[in-house]
Amino acid sequence: MKYLLGIDLGTSATKTVLFDDECQVKASSVQSYPLYQPQNGWAEQDPKDWCNAVLKTIKDVLQKSGVNGQDIKGIGLSGQMHGLVMLDKENQVIRPSIIWCDQRTVNECQEITDKVGAERLIEITSNPALTGFTASKILWVRNHEPQNYAKCRHILLPKDYIRFCMSGEYATEVSDASGMQLLDIKNRCWSDEVLEKLNIDKGLLGKVYESPDVTGYISGEFAEKSGLSELSVIVGGAGDNAAAAIGTGVVKDGKAFTTIGTSGVVFAHTSQPQIDPNGRVHSFCCAVPGCWHVMGVTQAAGLSLKWFRDNFAGDYKDRAVVEHKEVYDLINAAVDKVPCGSNRLIYLPYLMGERTPHLNPDCRGVFFGLSAMHTKEDLFRAVMEGVSYSLKDCNDILRELGITVHEMMACGGGSKSPVWRQMIADMYGCEVKVPVSEDGAALGAAILAGVGAGVFKDIESACEHFVCTKDYCQPIAQNYAYYEKGHKLYQKLYTNLKECYSELTKL
Asked: Cβ-count burial of 146 within 10 angstroms (0-12 exposed, 13-18 middle, 19+ buried)?
């Protein structure tokens, strides 16, 4: 039998899943690692932690499954986008990776806008200059750590650093490269104009492939360490959301998904590039060759719930241990008893600034409406509703752009919560489906690997055959009516607090 490996390099952990040629899971393994915040609004990780996690999880799945590495025909990589990995001439990591949710590059974004021009930047890269994107991080290192920039010989994205560790190849693919703000989105290649205006040497960047293209093979050194075969192909893979789109079957017009992971995303497939002239949502090349996707992103989705749980809900953790249950199952059960609207409590999920629709690195989280009557459970529900309001912001913009969605899927860790799925259905006013597989990004990466290795004919037919749904939520009319009013107040709060956020950063 032929096997495929999907590796998903997340922010909190790497998940490696071994699939057979019917896309059935044979084994999986997860390895976590830390995130460092040396200053408020900064976020970094050690790329070596990623590589160690990938190596460990590969060895785990081979051991658990008993599969011989020679039988793994293809490997697909998925991962967190926008992170900056810099290598020196000896291929050593120069500094910790500045990852996607880092907000330090406000001045560099202005520098990019001034040098390229606001309208021209959107024309080429389909997005305004954003603090989360890689280009501004490159400029930040050049401006603040010139000694590190001078040593740099290669610039890679997180998953592409893993590709280098596995194969020795300096390569990327269109979906992840789209988030660097250096790619010509319509023509699916590096933009010479942007690179020239920003004075970034194109030689620092990897070769750009389409997602199912073969980019190399497992090196002898990595094969010896991992148990994989030097004959196994490594395909381009995809950024985490583009891979999740493949894993949830969002590969045709009219299909979309909402993911609630560390960040939250509303993602719609489109066969033509769709650009928001206001820059509120992102237009990227997608993992299906010749197609694109539009997505809105909220920075702190599952991160908001995790933050509240870790800092204010130690009793839930203790109960979970005593009762031998998952802590989030206890939280979901408690939230389900709180009425829609959290007893008139609203949460703004701006723990790490925001991307859609505000593009504001200065905004921060807020609980609005707190009173002595509110309980911890009210706050839990408010956090989930606040994240859902932010996702509704994203979905409303897609509708405004004329993107019609006939099928909405839910994925990510938050999609496991029936309560959260119902909130999304109630706020969107549409049916929300759940895929059978909970390994969306890893499955998507594996499907891409299968196409590249010749196991599958193409992406669309593989998705049609292997991606199935298992559950759905229908909107509740009464809740939809409430959330329509609540969303307007939620939006008004940001407007009224916008200047206050700026003042807060200057204190």
From this structure: exposed
Tell me the percentage of the chain whose pLDDT exceeds 90. 89
Strand pairing report for 255-260 and 264-270: antiparallel
Assign 287 to helix, strand or coil: coil
Cα–Cα distance between 242 and 126 in angstroms, integer? 16
Contact 16, 61 (CB under 8 A): yes
As given in the structure block, the two tokens for residue 399 are 């509708």
Active-site pick, 102, 176, 240, 276: 240
Instruction: Tell me, rounded to whole angstroms, the distance of Cα 49 from its chain centroid.
Output: 19
What is the chain's Cα-based Rg? 22
38: left (phi > 0), else alpha (psi -120 to 50), else beta?
Answer: alpha
Rounded CA-CA distance 45/146 in Å is 20
Q: Are strands 207-209 and 171-173 parallel, antiparallel or unpaired?
A: parallel
As a whole number of angstroms, the distance between CA 253 and CA 85 comes to 34
Q: Is the Cα dihedral 94, 100, 104, 108 positive or negative?
A: positive
**pTM for the structure as a whole:** 0.86
Cis peptide before 357 (omega within 30 of 0): yes
- The answer to whether residues 264 and 247 touch, using CB atoms and an 8 Å cutoff, is no
What is the token pair recorded at 448?
Answer: 């891409």
Residue listed under structure tokens 């593009």: 359
Q: Apex CA 48: angle with CA 46 and CA 49, to 5°?
A: 70
Burial of 187 by CB count in 10 Å (0-12 exposed, 13-18 middle, 19+ buried)?
exposed
- Distance between CA atoms of 155 and 334, rounded to whole angstroms? 46
Characterize the bridge pairing of strands 238-239 and 85-87.
unpaired
- Strands 432-435 and 469-473, sheet pairing: antiparallel
Mean pLDDT of the chain: 96
- Whole-angstrom distance, CA of residue 499 vs CA of residue 309: 29
Tokens linked to 400:
């405004």
Amino acid 454 reads G
Q: Let me know: does 370 contact 312? Beta carbons within 8 Å.
A: no
Residue 275's pLDDT band (boundaries 50, 70, 90)? Answer: confident
- Amino acid 411: pLDDT: 86
Which element (helix H / strand E) includes 243?
helix 240-247
Kindly list the structural domains of the chain, giving each domain's residue range(s) and its CATH number in brackets, ordered by start.
3-248 (3.30.420.40), 302-403+476-506 (3.30.420.40)
306-314 contact pairs (CB < 8 A, 24+): 306/262, 307/351, 308/379, 308/380, 308/383, 312/376, 312/379, 313/376, 313/380
pLDDT tens-digit series, residues 38-60 = 998 899 999 999 999 999 999 99
Which two structure tokens, joined as six digits, stand for 267? 């993602």
Does 114 participate in catalysis according to the annotation? no
106 backbone dihedrals φ, ψ, rounded to 5°:
-60, -45
